[in-house]
# Entry
Amino acid sequence: MTAVVIFHKNIEEMTMTLEHHIEELRAELRNAVDAGERHQIEAELEVARAQLARRIAEEELP
# Structure
């Protein structure tokens, strides 16, 4: 039973970390002036959003 609780807590912590990372990328994107930099940040943001969606889906599994 303890392993399940620890696993769930770890997923929550990883999810919060991803949410924080997404917010940082959004802030960087707002301040980026170079087109190449914007493209790179947008790509990183897309990956982070996909990871977050997977984590949320994992949390919803029974």
Q: What stands out?
A: The CA atoms of residues 22 and 47 lie 10 Å apart. The chain has two helices and no strands. The radius of gyration is 15 Å. Residues 2-31 form the longest helix (30 residues).
